[in-house]
Design goal:
heterodimer, A: mainly beta, 6-stranded mixed beta sheet, 5-stranded antiparallel beta sheet, 11 strands, about 55% strand, B: 7-stranded mixed beta sheet, 4-stranded antiparallel beta sheet
């Protein structure tokens, strides 16, 4: 079974600071997804990373994928309060028949 | 374009009862997946349907079942409810399969008492 681990699980950061969330997975996969979930809400797709070395940026968030290291990062630049949410990474098995989510990182941005 | 819709949004049931949840995918999407989210186990894949057939299944007991209709709408059924089935159940739709980008519905919050 594929394991997907995120760290940290909880992150409290001040506005204006930078930080990185890490997502490690245990088996080969060329695709990785990042989602955001606000309290009591559903999942919102942030990024889809489809190959080794893929990098995508949207606003203050940048995601990258290293398939050889089985690692993805979500970098937050100059955090603002609106980024407070839980962030999940997710990986499929590469065959399209299973989908695994990470443990989630609960981010709180403090003014 | 309308998003994924799920009904009902909230549900309270008693142990031993059964429940049916409904999901309407984005128009044109043929793959529908179901997920369970709990504080203890996180987000877990239940199953995926395509063309009225269950194509993939996660590691859940047989009490959890589903079906898909010809218009791609899907239902999920849980029989003999247990307290541990209390969760947020999320439905997602995609064009063809789990490799396509998935769009999630608002979820159904099930409480089992």
């Amino acid at each position: 079974e594929l394991k997907v681990e995120q760290n940290p699980l909880f992150l409290s950061m001040q506005e204006g600071k930078n930080y990185t969330i890490y997502c490690n997975y245990s088996t080969t996969s060329d695709r990785l997804y990042w989602y955001r979930q606000d309290p009591g809400k559903s999942l919102e797709s942030l990024f889809v990373l489809l190959s080794n070395g893929a990098v995508k940026q949207e606003g203050r968030l940048m995601a990258s994928l290293d398939t050889k290291a089985r690692l993805s990062t979500l970098h937050i630049t100059a955090a603002v309060h609106d980024l407070s949410a839980t962030y999940f990474c997710a990986v499929d098995m590469g065959t399209g028949n299973q989908f695994y989510f990470g443990t989630g990182t609960s981010l709180t941005v403090i003014p | 374009k309308a998003g994924v819709t799920q009904t009902p949004r909230y549900l309270i049931k008693t142990r031993g009862q059964q429940v049916t949840l409904s999901c309407s995918p984005i128009s044109g999407h043929r793959s529908v997946s179901w997920y369970q989210q709990t504080p203890g186990q996180g987000l877990q894949f239940l199953f995926e349907y395509f063309s009225e057939t269950q194509r993939n299944k996660g590691n859940f007991p047989g009490r959890f079942s589903g079906r898909q209709f010809s218009n791609s709408r899907s239902e999920m059924n849980v029989s003999t409810l247990e307290l541990g089935d209390s969760a947020l159940y999320l439905c997602a739709s995609s064009l063809r399969d789990l490799l396509d980008e998935q769009y999630f519905g608002p979820g159904t919050r099930l409480t089992v008492t």
